[in-house]
């Protein structure tokens, strides 16, 4: 069974001992309900560090008032078993009180400008401020040398890169590949909200992203690619928040896109909101 700590002093004591022994510490922050995507991040961190800490904390400040904080799946025993198997050394499970000693309303909050406010940020107001708030706290608590995040949350990764650079955290960031089911659906804890009929349709997001890439590579103007992708998803029963083509820094490419690009989709099927993306190169 994996060592689990819930008190900040215990976490700090463990990490300090490792650092005294000259060991590099890797970190994988999560909200639990772990799947193969999370375990691949543990392995990625393991390859670049001597010890790996994973956190499980369902962070209230990154959920909007009408989002799924209360019903977000919590599976601590399965998570602990999977982390041990994946080669994680320590599980950090702070309480809300430990993370936010004066409550969420009394918390010092991050406010991330620019990239945090487009796409996901425009549809989930304050979401990335909450992510940055908790990730900065987690970095401060764990004090890792390296930290791993998944590419599935493309914009989150961009926000965290910005945070690390802006606040000068001495942490190397690692980006893990998106893990997919056999039919292309990106792994996500929220996939378990899908009933059988929504689950059958959900891989259409990945197919749409592939079609967006092919259309850009064929020279179709970005606006047409985006409206075609939204129409395709709607025809399959999705409610679409966005289907967008962006440069890899999330800036709008304009006209006909080239260079390092990413196609991103957020859409709801049967009440479940899914996000996915596909990075590609369209060098002229
Ligand atoms: O990606 C997640 O699971 C969360 O947004 C994170 C990074 C653990 C912060 O709560």
Describe the structure.
With 284 residues, the chain is an alpha/beta fold. The chain has 2 domains: 3-176, HUPs (Rossmann fold, 3-Layer(aba) Sandwich), CATH 3.40.50; 189-278, Pantoate--beta-alanine Ligase, Chain: A,domain 2 (2-Layer Sandwich), CATH 3.30.1300. The chain is built from 10 helices and 9 strands. It has helices spanning 8-20, 36-48, 76-86, 96-99, 120-123, 127-142, 154-166, 196-201, 204-217, 222-235, and strands at 3-5, 25-30, 51-56, 90-92, 146-150, 172-176, 239-247, 259-269, 272-282. A 6-stranded parallel beta sheet has the order 1-4-3-2-5-6, sandwiched between helices. The chain has a 3-stranded antiparallel beta sheet with strand order 7-8-9, covered by helices on one side. Strand 2 (25-30), helix 2 and strand 3 form a beta-alpha-beta unit. Helix 6 crosses helix 7 (154-166) and helix 9 runs antiparallel to helix 10 (222-235). The radius of gyration is 19 Å and the shape is globular. The protein starts with a strand and ends with a strand. The mean pLDDT is 97.
